[in-house]
Design goal:
The chain is of the alpha/beta class and 248 residues long. The protein folds into 2 domains: 159 residues, MoaB/Mog-like domain (Molybdenum Cofactor Biosythetic Enzyme, Chain A, 3-Layer(aba) Sandwich), CATH 3.40.980.10; 74 residues, 2-Layer Sandwich (Alpha-Beta Plaits), CATH 3.30.70.600. The protein is built from 9 helices and 12 strands. The strands form 3 sheets. Strands 2-1-3-8-7-6 form a 6-stranded mixed β-sheet, with helices on both faces. The two termini are 32 Å apart. The relative contact order is 0.13.
C-alpha cells in the first residue's frame, strides 16, 4: 500500500566536468523517471562543483529538507573524487574501508600505486550501507543520502539495486492537451482552473510549428480520475478560446 503523503527527493549532480560543459548530464532524466514510477517526486536538482565546503553544505541541507537525496559522481579513484569524504563530513562520521568493496576491488591485480588509487573507491562513511550493483562497483547509502556513480551505465546499475529499498507514494501521472492556441489566449482560464484544482499541477509550454504558435497544456497529479476530468476541461477551454486541438 502506498502513502498519500508526497515523498520527495533532491538530486545532486556532482562534477566540475558538468559545469564546464565538457560532459553533458544524462542521469537526471533517468533518475526522475525511475523514482516517479515508485512514487518519489524529484522536487529539486542541483549541479555542484568538486568543492568540499559546497558539497558538505548542500548534502547536509538537502538531507534535512527531502525524504531522499541522490548524488551522482565523485566516487572514482582520483584526488578530485571527494563525494564519499563530503558525505562523511556532512554526517560527522569517519571514512572506513569497506571489506566487501576492498575484496571486490582487489580481485584484479594491479601495481601498488594503481591499487592504492583504486582502493579509494572502497571507502564508505562509518555505518553506511552498500547499494549493490550486480555488474560491478557498488554505491553506498548513509541515512537518506544515496551515493551513485556519475558514469551513466554504472549509475543505472546502481539505481536498479537502490530502487527496491526506497519507499514511495502514489506516482505522478500526466495528461497533455496540445493546440494551436497562444499562452495569452488561454492564460486567464488556465489560472482559474489551477485555483479550482490545487491538487493538480498545470503548466503551459509554448511551441512554434509550421509558422504557427501553439501551446502544450500539461496536467500532473496522482489522481487518475481527476486528471481525466482536467483533460476534458482543458480541451473545452481551448475550444472556447478559438484554438485548434492537435493530436498530443
Amino acid at each position: 500500500m502506498t502513502s498519500e503523503t508526497p515523498v520527495t527527493a533532491c538530486v545532486l549532480i556532482i562534477g566540475d566536468e558538468i559545469l564546464s560543459g565538457r560532459t553533458q548530464d544524462v542521469n537526471l532524466a533517468h533518475i526522475a523517471t525511475e523514482l516517479n514510477e515508485i512514487g518519489i517526486q524529484v522536487s529539486e536538482a542541483h549541479v555542484l562543483p568538486d568543492d568540499e565546503a559546497i558539497l558538505v553544505d548542500n548534502i547536509r541541507k538537502a538531507s534535512e529538507r527531502f525524504d531522499y537525496v541522490i548524488t551522482t559522481g565523485g566516487i572514482g579513484p582520483t584526488h578530485d573524487d571527494i563525494t564519499a569524504d563530503c558525505v562523511a563530513k556532512a554526517f560527522g562520521r569517519e571514512l572506513e574501508m569497506n571489506e566487501e568493496l576492498e575484496t571486490l576491488l582487489r580481485r584484479r591485480e594491479a601495481p601498488p600505486e594503481i591499487m592504492a588509487a583504486r582502493l579509494r573507491m572502497a571507502r564508505v562513511p562509518q555505518g553506511g550501507e552498500l547499494i549493490r550493483n550486480p555488474n560491478g562497483a557498488h554505491g553506498f547509502r548513509v541515512e537518506n543520502v544515496c551515493v551513485l556513480a556519475g558514469i551513466p551505465r554504472v549509475m543505472r546499475d546502481m539505481l536498479s539495486g537502490l530502487l527496491p529499498t526506497l519507499k514511495g507514494a502514489k506516482p505522478v501521472r500526466s495528461r497533455t492537451v496540445t493546440a494551436f492556441v497562444t499562452e495569452s489566449q488561454i492564460a486567464g482560464p488556465l489560472g482559474a482552473l489551477q485555483q479550482a484544482h490545487p491538487s493538480i499541477s498545470l503548466g503551459s509550454y509554448p511551441f512554434s510549428r509550421d509558422g504557427r504558435y501553439g501551446t502544450s497544456l500539461v496536467a500532473r497529479g496522482t489522481d487518475e480520475a481527476a486528471l481525466d476530468n482536467i483533460e476534458s476541461t482543458l480541451k473545452s477551454l481551448v475550444a472556447d478560446a478559438g484554438g485548434e486541438l492537435l493530436d498530443s
